[in-house]
Design a protein that fits this description.
This protein is an alpha/beta fold. The protein has one domain: P-loop containing nucleotide triphosphate hydrolases (Rossmann fold). The chain is built from seven helices and nine strands. It has helices spanning 47-55, 89-99, 106-115, 131-143, 161-176, 188-191, 217-221; strands at residues 7-18, 21-32, 36-40, 62-67, 74-77, 149-153, 180-184, 197-202, 205-211. Strand 8 (197-202) and strand 9 form a beta hairpin. Helix 2 (89-99) crosses helix 3 and helix 4 (131-143) packs parallel to helix 5 (161-176). The longest helix is centred in the C-terminal third of the chain and has 16 residues, at 161-176.
Length: 226
């Protein structure tokens, strides 16, 4: 990460309550272009809640999250693929392109499908896809907008090794092209190596924010998650 890189996201003293239950409080961080920030914590620590607040999909109970990257240049990739099962792979991409106000050619869309290894399934309905194929198509949807900021909520869950490798290669490629990535991983042990920094959530607060190379899960979170 370049220290002079453009800041694309700012979070200041963000807190979230569900009723009277505290999820977390006092979360502050910046995310810069070309940076991968890995968000870690045990189940129930509030990782997905924080990611949604960062992405503007949920409001904090107090504090703020400011998207500096343009909303149309931000992408969210999570457990749910948001694909239309009765549409083909091409049909899904055409639909999402129209939602973004884009009009790519069929050849352009086929190039995206080829990039994720789905060119032979271009006319197949998405409802027949395996988990790995569906997530590959979802990744192609992200490619449509060449995002400046990408939010990833355990996108590798349930993927086979081939799809996982594709996902990790593309994450590294996004960073090389200057995109910022905020990433909740289902396999922190392996994915720490791709990250620049780690934000560790525990006991309702931010227990760590620093270099991934210095992150100690036992000292920070009281257990091995890496």
């Amino acid at each position: 990460m370049n220290d002079s890189a453009k800041t694309v996201l700012k979070v200041r003293k963000a807190a979230k309550f569900f009723g009277t239950r505290l999820v977390f409080k006092g979360i502050s961080c910046d995310v810069s272009a070309g940076e991968i920030l890995l968000v870690v914590g045990r189940n129930g620590a509030g990782k997905t809640t924080l990611l949604k607040i960062m992405a503007g999909l949920s409001r904090p109970s107090s504090g703020r999250a400011e998207l500096i990257a343009a909303p149309e240049k931000s992408a969210y990739l999570g457990h749910a693929t948001f694909l239309y099962p009765r549409l083909s792979a091409l049909g899904n991409l055409n639909f999402w392109a129209s939602m973004y106000g884009l009009s790519p050619s069929r050849d352009g869309l086929m190039d995206l499908l080829r990039r994720v290894g789905l060119e032979r399934a271009a006319e197949e309905k998405a409802g027949s896809f395996s988990r790995g194929m569906a997530q590959r198509l979802n990744l192609a949807r992200v490619f449509l907008i060449e995002p400046e900021l990408i939010f990833l909520d355990e996108p590798g869950t349930g993927l086979d090794q081939s799809s996982l490798k594709l996902l990790r290669d593309e994450i590294a490629g996004f960073r090389e092209r200057g995109s910022a990535i905020v990433w909740i991983s289902h396999d922190v042990r392996h994915d720490c190596g791709l990250a620049d920094r780690v934000l560790g959530l525990a006991s309702g607060r931010m227990e760590y924010l620093g270099p991934a190379s210095e992150f100690d899960p036992v000292a920070v979170l009281g257990g091995s998650v890496c």
